[in-house]
Write a structure and sequence with these properties.
The complex is a heterodimer of chains A (242) and B (292). By secondary structure, chain A is of the alpha+beta class. Chain A is built from five helices and nine strands; from the N terminus they run ααβαααββββββββ. Chain B is globular, with a radius of gyration of 19 Å. The chains are: A alpha+beta (242), B mainly beta (292).
Chain lengths: 242, 292
């Protein structure tokens, strides 16, 4: 019996999947590194044809459909029609979660047992994902980036996010939410250089049921690659501070 | 007609829920070290003397103007605060003559700004640059293997300091917070900051550098709760000689009215600054001094 058990462990340990996932000293998958989504979800998280300056892309929404309540679907359509002026990204505001993940710029994850720090090139956004067992602070609180508390579910980092404002969009196409937004992110290493990023969106004020986003995040492996800055200028500041 | 800079900022959800202390046990064994051998200095740090009105007397009003001269805040009845210009001995930035004229021009237009460039970029919630950012609110120093991270509460700006001797990015690539490379010399973190775009000014008084600026910082940790900061500014295009910007920092104590050392659960919460900005014109005055 023992022999069979040892053999099984050896088989698992020697499998390519196990070997390829880096782990921290405490045995958790090591997400440390610089990552980036390589898709067009920031343009539109649903299927979309190309427009000027916005390439075509396949949906990152599972099933493609977003279960809006009727009033919310009408608002989404209005947002879409006026997206050139209404998209909060045009004002360079903090983009919220999960949009900050796929807004098109790299981000760096730092990991230790009690805390995961994520620094984003976009607008110096940063997140504290506490993995020390602490609960969300008592609300109501309305933050642009919400409050993040994480835990490990096997080899998946599960991040629970609440306390958002209603000012951010999921994309440039006007997909939106209310201040009741609840986001659950799941980060699972597929191998050393790829993360499956699955997100559950819940907002009973806007949607009829929870829905999911799923995409792959890619590790930057270029030598000396590092985060730079994107201080976007919402007010054409470059002419004043050339 | 006072310049209502407070209207420029809506700090959304800047939160404090506790306090941060070095435990007594940490002090006894100070410094402990991180797994990758760094002296453990992690935590929240704050300048001992706060204020950005002028470098020579940070607690004074903008430009260190005397009572009666200043339309802004400032209180000259209190003792002078320590100058942030450590060297040269006269406590003045060694500007070249043209640069002094430019600084004075910015200062003279501070209170009634008629053009956007007269606004201190800080009032537009833009990053202050690597040095001045340390004087605005607290900084959370985090240590991960091979890195020191500064999470600045002011405007959610961060600075990433790799410790692996990698080269700086290309010389023509300029950044608001510069490009930092650090190493430890005993209990002193030495950081070389290149690639500064120097768009952030050094005070509200129009003090400035140019994008040829090179800064060498020394964060000398004296004990568990005290740190001495020195930054040598070298920019021959603006100054006649290198000069030193310096101040003392202390481990920050926040939170409850009567914090105890067991109450060490402070969290840095979001301070969205830019997100509350009004358009630039809102801050300007017409040539006749009226708010636009």
């Amino acid at each position: 019996m023992k022999k069979i058990l040892y053999s099984s462990i050896l088989i698992v340990a020697a499998s390519p999947l196990f070997a390829q996932i880096p782990r921290t000293a405490d045995g958790k998958p090591d997400l440390s590194g610089i990552w980036q989504a390589l898709n067009t979800a920031n343009v539109d998280i649903q299927d979309h044809a190309a427009q000027k300056g916005a390439p075509a892309g396949q949906s990152v929404v599972e099933g493609n459909e977003i279960p809006y309540q009727p009033w919310a679907l009408a608002k989404k359509k209005d947002n879409y029609a006026n997206r050139a002026t209404l998209d909060p990204e045009n004002k360079c505001y903090l983009p919220g979660v999960p949009r900050v993940t796929y807004i098109g710029l790299p981000f760096q994850i730092f990991q230790r047992p009690d805390l995961v720090t994520v620094l984003y090139e976009h607008a110096h956004a940063n997140r504290y994902i506490y993995t020390n067992g602490t609960p969300h602070p008592k609300g109501p609180i309305e933050w642009w980036m919400g409050d993040s508390r994480g835990r490990w579910d096997g080899d998946t980092l599960v991040v629970d996010n609440v306390h958002f404002n209603d000012q951010t969009w999921f994309d440039h196409a006007g997909n939106f939410h209310s201040e009741n937004l609840h986001v659950v992110e799941r980060y699972s290493l597929l191998d050393r250089d790829h993360i499956d990023y699955r997100v559950t969106i819940e907002d009973p004020k806007v949607f009829t049921r929870p829905w999911n986003i799923d995409m792959v995040l890619y590790r930057h492996v270029e030598k000396n690659f590092q985060l730079l800055e994107y201080e976007c200028y919402g007010f054409d500041l470059e002419q004043y501070y050339p | 007609m006072r310049f209502k800079s407070t209207l420029l900022v809506i700090a959304i959800g800047a939160g404090i829920i506790g306090s941060a202390f070095a435990a007594e046990a940490d002090k006894a064994a100070w410094p402990q070290h991180t797994p990758d051998g760094q002296p453990k200095v992690e935590g929240f740090w704050l300048t001992v003397v706060y204020g950005m009105g002028c470098l020579q007397d940070p607690l004074a009003g903008v430009g260190c103007l005397k009572e009666g001269e200043e339309p802004g805040r400032g209180n000259r009845s209190r003792p002078k605060s320590a100058s942030r210009i450590i060297d040269p001995p006269d406590g003045e930035i060694p500007y070249q003559p043209w640069a002094r004229t430019k600084q004075q021009y910015y200062l003279s237009n501070y209170f009634e700004p008629t053009r956007p460039e007269f606004l201190d970029p800080q009032q537009l919630c833009l990053p202050l640059g690597p040095v001045r950012q340390l004087t605005w609110h607290d900084v959370h120093m985090l240590q991960y293997p091979g890195y020191v991270i500064f999470e600045h509460e002011g405007g959610h700006v961060f600075r990433l300091i790799p410790l692996d001797n990698r080269p700086h990015i290309g010389a023509n690539l300029k950044l608001w917070m510069g490009d930092s490379r650090g190493h430890w010399e005993g209990n002193t973190l030495v950081v070389d900051v290149a690639n500064n775009n120097s768009k952030g000014r050094l005070s509200r008084a129009g003090d400035f550098a140019d994008d040829k600026l090179h800064v060498t910082e020394r964060f000398e940790f004296l004990d568990a709760d005290h740190m001495r900061y020195r930054a040598v500014f070298d920019d021959p295009s603006v100054y006649t000689r290198p000069w030193t910007f310096g101040f003392d920092m202390k481990r920050a104590i926040f939170g409850a009215e009567n914090p105890t050392k067991d109450d060490a659960h402070y969290e840095q919460w979001e301070e969205a600054c830019y997100e509350g900005m009004q358009p630039v014109d809102y801050s300007l005055r017409s040539e006749r001094g009226e708010q636009k």
